[in-house]
Structure formats: C-alpha cells, structure tokens
Amino acid sequence: MITNLFNIPQQVLDSIVEDKYDGRGEDIFCSVTDLLNPPHQWNLLKKTPKHEQIIDAKDLLKAWIRTAIHKSLYETHRDNFKDEMALELRINEKFSGKTITGQFDYYQDGVIIDYKTTSTSNLQHYNKFGNTIPTKWEVQLNCYALLLKKSKGTPLTTELRVIVICTDWDEKKIFEDHYPQGPVIEYNIELNNYDKTERWIIERIELFNKALIGETKECEAKEVWINKHGVRTRCGNYCSVSHKCEGYQIHKSVLKKELRTHIDQTPKIID
After folding, report:
1. Domain-embedded: residue 84
2. What does the angle CA 209 – CA 245 – CA 134 come to, to the nearest 5 degrees?
3. What range defines the domain where residue 134 resides?
4. pLDDT tens for residues 115-172?
5. What is the rounded CA–CA span in Å between residue 245 and residue 255?
6. How many domains does the chain have?
C-alpha cells in the first residue's frame, strides 16, 4: 500500500509509484543489493505481498530521481557506444547453489563504474568519521567484479570506481566541515581478493537462509539504526514491512510503556 502523506500532486505521483520491472527471474535467490541489507527484512519483504507493504510516496521520491539520472546517463553512453563498453550489465551467478544477481552501470577497459545519488549530509557523515564513502558501496562493487569474473571465466576488472552525484549540493556551504567539494565526485575503490569477496557472499547467503526458514526473528541492533533516544529509526522510517515484524512491534510497545511511565512520574504543576 502506497500512502501520500505529503500530498504529492497526482501528475508526479503516478510516475513515482510506477512499478518498474527489475529484470529478476523466479530462480533468483537475491541480488547483491539485497545481500547488503538485513536478512530478516529481506525475508519479510519476500513473504509480504506488495499490497500489504506500507510505504509513503515521499520515500519513493529519491529512487525516482535516481532512476531518472541513471536513465539520462545510460542514454548518453548508448549514443556514444563503443564495442568494448557494457552498459547496465546484469549478471547472474551461483554461489552455494543459490543464484545471485547483480547489475552495474558501466564497464570499459577493465573498469567497473557505478553511479550513486545521495545527499550531501550523507557524505558529510562518512567524511566526519574518516570514511569517504559507505563501506557497502565498496563491498557492492567488489561483488560485481566477482560476478564478472565468474561469468567470463577470467578476471577482467582492474579498477573499481563510484561516481557520486549529490542531489542537494550547495556551493555556499563548501567551507563547512567535511562538506563535499563538488556536486559530482569520483572515488576509486580498492579491488579486493576475489576469494575474500566470495567468502563474504557465501556467509551472507547462510544468514539469509536462516532468515528464510525462520531462525532469524528480528534484525540485529546495528542494522536498525538506533538513535540516542533508543528508537529504531530504520524500522520506523525506512522499512515497508515493520508492521509485520514481531520484534519491532514489541520494541514499540516497550517504548510506549516507558513514555507512559515517564509522564506518570513527571511532577504535576498545581495552580
């Protein structure tokens, strides 16, 4: 179910909520992007019909903008296509008997490039703590390199790059601490040992299998983005199946009790 709490005009809403085919078949276990997310959340998404998932249109807006940017870049590359290039390349390969799919944006002369759109505050956060980009982007591109190697039977990747487009970049803020120094920034990513990447994929598949058979009942603490008030912000703001999660419903119930206790213990002002 898609809500529209912020009254996005219908002309825009129709485009935002359009269900776009992602190219996966029934034999696909999951995607590389799925492997980067919590296994319990993935399992709930897999088992919950689309019409029972709850998401607001505003939360689809970023994906809509990202898709528009990717489409424009794809069309530009397509118009200047060369034989050694690959665009929007999707690869399916088996690991531990499970088919994993991945699609990257651009490949040429041994270089895999993936485009990312994000907010400047997101990059500021990682810059503040000494990381130029999220670790998951590094893992993701290394997984793509491994998929390409397995599909072709030989290592073909020599470089990994991510090009980050900051959708809200403001030149007036360029002197702020850790602020991105341009609206579009290219980062080089270290190409890991292929065996290391394959071990990571296999370990993730094992965790996802446990979730699939019901051994995992909720997401780990590090996966739910707990804020300073103890609230699970990922569950409350960024998960369309949190209403189906027993662990999150218990968490909400505990928070409500704590809030009621706090209110009851607050001294009353008597006129």
Report:
1. yes
2. 65
3. 25-35+65-205
4. 999 999 999 988 887 778 899 999 999 999 999 999 988 888 999 999 999 999 999 9
5. 16
6. 1
